[in-house]
Amino acid sequence: MKVLVAGAGPTGLTAALELARRGAELRIVEKRPDPSPFSRAVGITRGSMEILRPSGVAEALMAEAVTFSAIAFHVGARPIAHLPMDFDDRSRIWGLPQDRTEAHLAQALRRHGVEVEYGTPVTKVAQDERGVTVRTASDEDRADLLIGADGVGSTVREALGLDFPGYELPETWSIADVESAAWPDPTAFHGYLLPQGAVCVVVPLGPSRFRIIASQPDALAALPVPMQVDATHRAGTFHISVRQVRDYAQGRVFLAGDAAHCHSPVGGRGMNLGIADAADLAARIVEGRTDGYAAARHAASARIMTATERARRLLQGGPLRRGLATSVLRLAAAVPPVGRAFVHRFVGG
């Protein structure tokens, strides 16, 4: 059986790697001309590490990533809760720029003799009872199955004519990846609740590298505490969509990762959800039981998207919701069993 994977982000690379290590014939194509230089997603959960352990990628990621020591919440600049994140295996989460995660996945895939074909966008998809015909910018290929892991603007999803129902949040969000040798808490995740429902977070990416995300147009300006910036790797704005395709599969074509679902970065679950999609699908393909994939992953994604939106609305809500959020956070900091349960729910993987 031959599988063609469209998209070489974490989802597509995981699908290809899991198929390759199980002996499947495959090809992976990517419309970008080169590997992405951007960090994008940064948090890697325990669940993702367990998925990537058999391929050897987990050990490589852990060796390079920052292990979060704690999660701290603030109202403005004032601390209100500090919760440890290293009290057991379930509480751990790692921070690493997405481009480095992709590099480790691609390197492991290369060890199985498979290279990503960059600069090869999918332009047309047609399927019949015997297989899928995929046209790219350079050729036409035939495969038994196609995995569309080609992101929010998925060409594969559009070729299937599938809707992507949902909504877009009204705010302009922003991001800044910076170097700051003087930042005083380099292994803790910091969340700041700002006036008018705004939020800002600081996520460790390396010994002196950090990701700042804010629900305002300028992430660094939104940060309510001083940060000495030594260098800026990337800065920009973005909008958040909350969407999920109704059917993750149509005939011999399957969708995974952002091609099937997208949501806010609260909780850092997007990349991990895509990795879980990919591993589940790869195992089902090899075992010949793909019929259950669409229902299983739609349900899993819907649960996470609901929880993510509930948390975002609580953190970004009006005075009553904000009051509830701060009360919960203070309780979690004051009562260790509550704090541990909160961290397990936050990490979620």
UniProtKB/TrEMBL annotation:
Gene3D superfamilies: 3.30.70.2450, FAD/NAD(P)-binding domain (3.50.50.60). This is FAD-dependent monooxygenase. GO terms for molecular function: FAD binding; oxidoreductase activity, acting on paired donors, with incorporation or reduction of molecular oxygen, NAD(P)H as one donor, and incorporation of one atom of oxygen. Keywords: FAD, Flavoprotein, Monooxygenase, Oxidoreductase. It comes from Psychromarinibacter sediminicola. It holds the Pfam family FAD_binding_3. Residues 2-190, 234-287 form the FAD-binding domain. SUPFAM superfamilies: FAD/NAD(P)-binding domain (SSF51905). The keyword Flavoprotein applies. It comes from the Bacteria.
